[in-house]
Amino acid sequence: MLWEIEVRPSSNEADREAARVISAGRDLGITTVRDVHASRSFLIETDAGSDRVAETAGTLLVDSLVEDHSIRSLDGSVDSPTDNGNQLLNVLFKPGVTDNVAQSTLKALEELGLPVEAVATCRKYRINSDATATDLTRLWAQRVLANDAIEHIVEGPLAIDSIALGSDYTFQLQNVALRDMDDDALQRQSRDGQLYLSLEEMRTIRDHFTSLDATPQTSSSRRSHRPGANTVRTRRSAAGSTTGTNPPNGTSTRCSRRPSSKRQR
User: Fold this and answer.
1) 146: left (phi over 0), alpha (psi -120 to 50) or beta
2) Predicted local confidence at residue 11, as pLDDT
3) In degrees, to the nearest 5, what angle opens at C-alpha 144 toward C-alphas 142 and 149?
4) For residues 20 and 99, what is the distance between their CA atoms, to the nearest angstrom?
5) Of 12-16, 52-56, 166-170, 255-259, where does mean pLDDT reach its minimum?
6) What is the pLDDT of residues 94-142, one digit of tens each?
7) Which candidate, 14, 108, 175, 241, has a CA 20 to 30 Å from the CA of 101?
8) How wide is the angle at C-alpha 85 spanned by C-alphas 70 and 130, nearest 5°?
9) How big, in percent rounded to 5, are the helix, strand and coil portions of the chain?
10) Are 178 and 205 in contact (CB under 8 A)?
11) Which of left, alpha, beta for 194 (phi over 0: left; psi -120 to 50: alpha)?
12) Helix, strand counts (H, E) of the chain
C-alpha cells in the first residue's frame, strides 16, 4: 500500500516557503497569487498498516515541536480535483532523477524495522482558488515552484497507488568489435548503444582502442539511467587495464588489454 505523510509548519510557526513564493511572485509582477500554504510529504510504499507507519515514519520525519503532520493512504483515485477550495500543486522528481532524501529516508525506515519497498518525496503548494493559470504558469516557468529540468508538477490530489518502478539490476557484459567498424557501423553503434556521439567522435574512440590493442566492453541494465551522467573518467590499474566510470546514459565501460604473447621474466 502507498501512504503519504504530509508535514507542515505548526499554526504558530511561520510558513517560510510560502512567504518565499509570494515574495518571488510579487517581484515578477504576479498579482493573483495572494494566499499560499506550503508543505512537504513523503510517499512510502509498504505492506505495514497505518498505525505502524504513523508510529515509525511519524517519529522519524516530523519535528513535533514545530511541525504538524497527517497520514493518508493513496489508492489511485480522488474524490474531487480540488483541495478544500484551493489549487493544489504537487512537485515531484521526474522519473530517473535521483531523490537523495528519499533514499536516505528509506534506509532509515528499514533500520527502524519498517519493511519499505520504495520512498519518494514531494513538495505541495496550496494556492488561492482564483489565482489565474497564467500567473501559475509564470511561477513554474521562472522556477519559483520547481526546477523543470528535474521536477514536474501534478495538479490536484495525487492519483497514484504505487511508486515502486523499474526492475532489479541484471549485469550484462558485451564485447564491442569497435576496431573493425566502418563509418556506417560506428554511427549505428552510437545510436543503438545510446551514446549519441558524432561520427568524428566515434572514429576517435575507435582509433584510441586500436592504438591500445584493446577491445571495449560495456555493462548495462534494464533500468532507466539518470540524466546528466555524461562525464567520462578513466584510470589505469597496476595490472595495466583501463577502467572508465560514469559515461553517457549511465553505461559503464571497461577495456581490457589482450594478453601479451611474450612471457614476463
Assistant:
1) beta
2) 93
3) 65
4) 23
5) 255-259
6) 988 999 999 999 999 999 999 999 999 999 999 999 999 999 999 988 9
7) 14
8) 130
9) 30, 30, 40
10) yes
11) left
12) 6, 11
Buried b (16+ CB within 10 A) or exposed e, 45-74: bbebeeeebbebbeeebbeeeeeebebeeb
243 pLDDT band, cuts 50/70/90, is very low
pLDDT at residue 263 tops 60: no
Sorting pLDDT into bands at 50, 70 and 90, what band is 175?
confident
C-alpha cell recorded at residue 54: 504513523
Sheet hosting strand 242-245, strand order edge to edge: 172-175, 214-220, 252-257, 242-245, 233-236
CA distance 72 to 4: 5
Q: Residue 12: is it exposed, middle or buried by C-beta count within 10 angstroms (0-12/13-18/19+)?
A: exposed
User: What pLDDT digit, counting tens, does each position of 196-205 carry?
Assistant: 788 999 999 9
